[in-house]
Write a structure and sequence with these properties.
single chain; two-stranded antiparallel sheet; mainly alpha; 4 strands; disordered N terminus
Amino acid sequence: MVRLSFAAASLAALCVAASPAAAFVPNNQPSVRSSTPLGVTTTTLSETATSFDLDAYLMSKKGPIEAALEASIVSVGPQTEKICESMLYSLMAGGKRIRPVLCLAAAEMFGGTEEQSMPTAVALEMIHTMSLIHDDLPSMDNDDLRRGKPTNHVVYGEDVAILSGDALLSTSFEHVARHTKNVTPDRVLDVICRLGKSVGHVGLAGGQVMDLQCEAKGDATLEELRWIHTHKTATLLEVAVASGAILGGATPEEVAACQRYALDIGLAFQVADDILDVTASTEDLGKTAAKDLVADKTTYVKLLGLDGAKAEAKRLVDEAKEALAPFGDRAAPLIGIADYIIERKN
């Protein structure tokens, strides 16, 4: 899934702690309940969050995000045309863009702007796309379909796919450093440090290695499964929300609350994926359905049963919303995304 090709030592030299900024006034709200297509009953944070139009919010972000992604990879001549084409093929293949949206929404919650957070939003999608390209490789999940299209290595070959993933990963850090404006240097460096950690041995790479090991032995425990997906899936979502909060000016305490929210929705995202693997079609998913079931992979459904997995998704989403209670109605987009994660069909 992950082939690291950037200078870890130089990133380490940049790591600094985030500095305090403006605080929020707590505004706890009453809860209401709603039903989801996955059969999970979720609790929303407030009446405002319940009526929040997430579709309209996501549509308002889609255009700017897509434009920023497309503009982020530019060939400098015929020598780089093929690798840039391969990078853009996967980067622009569609998808939910949840990580960029989470980053933008978290920044806005603390008074930040789209201009301040968009470079990091783009970097997050670059890293995510890299992970998908590598995840689909024959040596990993060996999948030939992603987002309803042939996977990168099917179109460009395994060699170019690997290198395209490497290039997306290294470009992500450059993009944040070069294009982030009107944010203090210590906050920008904190974001870069967090992005670097998210793909390392306690991030995507470590989670994927553990996943491969558990797949080989075939008897992973629930504790092992949670470790895998905390690092393989939830870490990048956690960084998306934390980075947005940092760029928006959040205090360390507020960033910590955002991280609790994001860790929970990150795990809920994986639980939902496991449920969809056995309940949705290939056409709905845009990738091969029942692949984990056929491969007898350890999943939340396998360990907890379908009803148990749905209950775990509900528990995680409820916990996520509780973490955002101090931010009141300003958290409405993030609350809506938490609900969406277990309502989605792909």
